């Protein structure tokens, strides 16, 4: 059995659903401080691993956003975020790291829920989404997220950089997974892209004209521009539209980490206690949960026929 | 046999170290630090350990070379994840197994400092030494022959009389004089690299475990906390808090309140990590280094 096969076996036996390998060359266009080779000298491959969100966790999300039931939202905070990231993805990443080290290689795991750099925008040391696209798990959606052919964006991710030269997986090259104009017509009543229409903070571009462009492995991807700090305002539940128990006034104009910190300091006490167990989670995630691609029927049924836009 | 079953549980749970000591080996420790002070029925102590991986050690080094965000991998994969998810989970599995056999298993959390206002008691370290994992280094940490001090530890006290392991009897692992010569700085690497100058100059502390005496330097544990909480300018503080000449827990507590809030957010997931650990990261001991 090759090392790659052994890694795959470990990943699936630990409850994960996706794994792909990208050679380091596919990251040539990453920002300098976020290149795998800058983080780990001698890096040869990047391993991307993912776990699909369960239907029950997704229904918990829909219960609040479509039926206004907040009480059992903790199921999404934990089983839709924390438990997947901390207990499945990070643990498996460490187990794979140990295997690679046993085989004489160095492995540098990147935390699943980590945002390690808040200077210009909240950013991970190495983008799990970009790594996943480079490793063939799918492509970018207009919502900025990894879109897999089967579960759409409903996947949590973790990444390992390693000096091992593993056989790379091909990049995704089938039919486009996110066809935003078709999606607008079919699911957005011709007015909005469902992800942008559902965006709590209304920060995801709705015009289809303001996008970021990135080249990975010779392929060009375009996805909506958005204000990442304002998006963080909702993901931390600082407004009532994103399950905040208290509406914290969003400062006017451009915001940065200092405003987020001031917002966190004003969070309702009961809400801040919710995070004592979960550590950090996502009170929003509407761009992920409302995306029609890979939407399980059972979750759609829980919408009660109500579409976000 | 129960001893073998416990060891199997630990190794199957991805730990690297599991060893057992009879409680008598820890009799000479100060009151409240002996296993029988915590669990009067204790007969054995089980020491559990997991090494910090090389890529994770490199993350600490990259952070100190200027790529600060890399410390996240160390905070989590070098501390929180190892302690909470691997060591503590395994300790609980062992406790469940012991209880099934009619014994008491009393786990001590891997990252626990029971009372932050008191100096550390090195409980896990002392148990590890008693169980034969290695010896005490100049920097006061556990030194193992394979991984040096780059091992996280947890402990289970039990009323079961398990088969003990011998104490470490190999060559001396830490030679401060030789280390000082190699460092070229006239002092051992751990002392020279400590950003908060918490490590003393001489081996002035003696700890007796299992009739063996181990020597280490005096460690100013509150200064050490100034580093491991990332409060010091040379320990990755975003907003350095000036460290007073004499530090007690009150100063540490006040400094924690003055931290840059981004550092508070950084610890939302790891709970507690270690921004420093320079003494164990750069320690040359360990065959696997």
Strand order of the largest sheet of chain A: 1-2-6-3
**Span between N and C termini of chain B?**
34 Å
What percent strand of chain B? 5-15%
Major β-sheet profile of chain B = 4 strands, antiparallel
Determine the N-to-C terminus distance of chain A: 50 Å
Low-confidence stretches of chain A: none
Helices of chain B, by number, come to 11
Question: Percentage of helical residues of chain B?
Answer: 25-40%
Biggest sheet statistics of chain A:
4 strands, antiparallel
So what's the oligomer here?
heterodimer
- Mean pLDDT metric of chain B: 94
Domain tally of chain B: 1
Structural category of chain B is: alpha+beta
**Domains of chain A (count):** 1
Report the largest inter-chain contact.
A-B, 35 and 27 residues
Give descriptors for this structure:
heterodimer; A: 309 residues; alpha+beta; 4-stranded antiparallel sheet; two-stranded antiparallel sheet; 37% helix; B: 289 residues; 11 helices; 8 strands; 14% strand
Walk me through the structure:
The complex is a heterodimer of chains A (309) and B (289). Chain A has helices spanning 3-13, 36-39, 55-67, 74-102, 128-134, 180-187, 194-198, 228-235, 257-265, 269-278, 286-289, 297-302, and strands at residues 18-23, 45-52, 107-110, 139-140, 146-147, 155-162, 211-216, 219-224. Chain A has 309 residues and is an alpha+beta fold. Chain A has a 4-stranded antiparallel β-sheet with strand order 1-2-6-3, with helices on both faces. A two-stranded antiparallel ribbon of chain A has the order 4-5. A two-stranded antiparallel ribbon of chain A has the order 7-8. In chain A, α1 (3-13) runs antiparallel to α4 (74-102) and α3 runs antiparallel to α4. Chain B has one domain. Chain B is built from 11 helices and 8 strands. In chain B, the strands form 3 sheets. A 4-stranded antiparallel β-sheet of chain B has the order 1-2-6-3, with helices on both faces. In chain B, strands 4-5 form a two-stranded antiparallel ribbon. The chains are: A alpha+beta (309), B alpha+beta (289). At the A-B interface, α4, β3 and α9 of A face α3, α4 and α10 of B.
């Amino acid at each position: 059995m090759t090392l790659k096969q052994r890694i795959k076996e470990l990943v699936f036996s630990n409850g994960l659903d996706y794994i792909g390998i990208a050679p380091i060359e596919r990251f040539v266009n990453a920002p300098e401080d976020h290149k795998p080779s800058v983080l780990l000298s001698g890096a040869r491959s990047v391993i991307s691993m993912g776990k699909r969100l369960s239907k029950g966790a997704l229904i918990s999300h829909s219960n609040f956003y479509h039926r206004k039931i907040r009480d059992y939202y903790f199921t999404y905070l934990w089983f839709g975020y924390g438990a997947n990231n901390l207990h499945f993805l990070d643990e498996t990443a460490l187990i794979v790291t140990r295997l690679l080290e046993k085989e004489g290689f160095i492995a540098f795991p990147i935390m699943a829920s980590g945002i390690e750099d808040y200077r210009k925008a909240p950013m991970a040391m190495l983008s799990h989404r970009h790594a996943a696209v480079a490793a063939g798990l799918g492509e970018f959606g207009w919502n900025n997220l990894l879109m897999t052919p089967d579960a759409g964006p409903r996947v949590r991710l973790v990444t390992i950089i390693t000096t091992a030269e593993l056989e790379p997986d091909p990049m995704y090259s089938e039919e486009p997974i996110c066809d935003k104009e078709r999606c607008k017509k079919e699911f957005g009543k011709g007015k909005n892209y469902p992800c942008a229409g559902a965006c709590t903070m209304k920060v995801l571009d709705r015009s289809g004209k303001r996008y970021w462009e990135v080249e990975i492995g010779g392929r060009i991807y375009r996805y909506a521009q958005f204000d990442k700090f304002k998006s963080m305002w909702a993901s931390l539940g600082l407004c009532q539209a994103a399950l905040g128990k208290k509406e914290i006034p969003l400062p006017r104009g451009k915001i940065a980490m200092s405003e987020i910190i001031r917002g966190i300091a004003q969070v309702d006490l009961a809400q801040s206690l919710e995070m004592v167990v979960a550590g950090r989670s996502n009170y929003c995630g509407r761009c992920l949960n409302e995306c029609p691609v890979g939407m399980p029927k059972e979750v759609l049924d829980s919408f009660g026929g109500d579409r976000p836009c | 046999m129960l001893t073998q079953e416990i060891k199997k549980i630990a190794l199957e749970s991805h730990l690297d170290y599991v060893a057992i000591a009879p409680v008598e080996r820890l009799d000479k420790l100060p009151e409240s630090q002996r296993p029988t002070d915590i669990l009067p029925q204790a007969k054995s102590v089980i020491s559990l350990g997991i090494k910090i991986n090389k890529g994770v050690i490199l993350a600490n080094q990259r952070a100190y070379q200027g790529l600060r965000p890399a410390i996240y991998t160390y905070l989590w994969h070098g501390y929180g994840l190892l302690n909470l998810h691997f060591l503590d989970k395994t300790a609980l599995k062992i406790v469940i197994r012991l209880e099934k056999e009619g014994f008491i298993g009393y786990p001590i959390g891997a990252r626990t400092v029971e009372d932050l206002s008191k100096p550390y008691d090195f409980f896990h370290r002392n148990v590890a030494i008693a169980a034969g994992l290695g010896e005490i280094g100049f920097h006061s940490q556990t030194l193992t022959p394979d991984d040096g001090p780059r091992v996280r530890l947890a402990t289970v006290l039990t009323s079961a009389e398990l088969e003990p392991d011998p104490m470490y009897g190999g060559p001396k692992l830490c030679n401060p004089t030789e280390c000082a010569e190699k460092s070229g700085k006239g002092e051992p690497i751990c002392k020279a690299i400590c950003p908060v100058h918490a490590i003393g100059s001489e081996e002035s502390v003696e700890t007796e475990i299992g009739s063996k005496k181990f020597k280490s330097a005096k460690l100013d544990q509150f200064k050490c906390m100034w580093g491991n909480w990332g409060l010091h300018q040379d320990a990755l503080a975003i907003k350095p808090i000036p460290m007073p000449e004499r530090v007690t827990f009150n100063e540490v507590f006040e400094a924690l309140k003055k931290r840059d809030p981004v550092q508070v957010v950084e610890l939302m997931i790891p709970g507690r990590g270690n921004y420093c650990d320079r003494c164990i990261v750069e320690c040359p001991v360990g065959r696997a280094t």
